């Protein structure tokens, strides 16, 4: 699948983050997080960072490149673990204990930054200093992964069935659980055309 810069149509934040790589299951993956600035932009697109804060973090990353590189590497490590976990679940294969360790480490670090605050409905969860730290992206992604792993939606987690290695993860919300493709406009349309050709 070749989406726009960032795609948020998977049905879960953690899967959206995993999908920042196009052709994830192929031998020619295309990474959408090539630098620290991309990570900040993803956080902005996901609604975690205001445009001003994203710019501030990008500037900080330019001033402290080693720290920025470490943050990006940590986020990518979490992303790849999440991808492997949910791809395995979709394929009916065992999940790696090493990948679960990576997720649990990120989760343990994130939970210490959760707090209860007032909201229009009464009270709500929020992130401590969420508007000023790039780490909040990992916090929110890790929490999203934990929530999906322990929810009924887990059985609806799918990996695009394209045989070229699209690798797009999504939650199948179709009534009869029949969705197989990232979208009918790309991988689904190709499969349909191929079946038509074979039938001819």
Number of domains: 1
* Helix percentage range: 40-55%
Low-confidence parts: none
CATH architecture: Orthogonal Bundle
Structural category is mainly alpha
Taken as a percent bin, the fraction of beta residues is: 5-15%
Estimated radius of gyration: 18 Å
CATH class: Mainly Alpha
Q: Give the integer mean of the pLDDT values.
A: 89
Find the CATH superfamily: Jann2411-like domain
Number of strands: 6
Q: Do you know the CATH topology?
A: Jann2411-like fold
In DSSP terms (H or I, runs of 4 or more residues), the helix count works out at 7
- The dominant shape is globular
Task: Give the strand order of the largest sheet, numbering strands 1, 2, ... along the chain.
Answer: 1-2
C-alpha end-to-end distance:
26 Å
Summarize the structure.
The protein is mainly α and 200 residues long. It has one domain: Jann2411-like domain (Jann2411-like fold).
Q: How is this fold's topology laid out?
A:
Blueprint: H1 13-18, E1 21-22, E2 30-31, H2 36-45, H3 51-63, H4 65-91, H5 97-111, E3 114-119, E4 122-127, H6 135-149, E5 157-159, E6 169-171, H7 184-199
Antiparallel strand pairs: 1-2, 3-4, 5-6
Helix pairs in contact: 2-3, 3-4, 4-5, 4-6, 5-6
Could you explain how this protein is built, in words?
The protein is mainly α and 200 residues long. The protein has a single domain, classed as Jann2411-like domain (Jann2411-like fold, Orthogonal Bundle). The protein contains seven helices and six strands; from the N terminus they run αββααααββαββα. α2 packs antiparallel against α3, α4 packs across α5 (97-111) and α4 packs parallel to α6.
């Amino acid at each position: 699948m070749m989406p726009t810069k960032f795609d948020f149509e998977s049905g879960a934040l953690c899967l959206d983050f995993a999908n920042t790589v196009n052709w994830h299951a192929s031998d020619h993956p295309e990474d959408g997080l090539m630098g620290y600035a991309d990570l900040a932009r993803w956080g902005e697109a996901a609604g975690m960072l205001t445009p001003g804060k994203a710019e501030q973090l990008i500037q900080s990353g330019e001033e402290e490149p080693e720290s920025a590189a470490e943050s990006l590497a940590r986020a990518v490590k979490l992303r790849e673990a999440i991808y492997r976990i949910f791809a395995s679940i979709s394929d009916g294969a065992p999940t790696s204990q090493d990948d679960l360790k990576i997720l649990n480490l990120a989760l343990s670090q994130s939970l210490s930054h959760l707090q209860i605050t007032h909201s229009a409905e009464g009270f709500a969860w929020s992130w401590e200093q969420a508007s000023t730290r790039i780490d909040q992206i990992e916090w929110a992604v890790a929490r999203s992964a934990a929530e999906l792993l322990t929810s009924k939606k887990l059985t609806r987690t799918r990996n695009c069935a394209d045989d070229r290695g699209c690798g797009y993860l999504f939650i199948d919300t179709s009534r009869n659980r029949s969705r197989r493709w990232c979208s009918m406009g790309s991988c689904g349309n190709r499969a349909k055309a191929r079946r038509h050709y074979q039938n001819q």
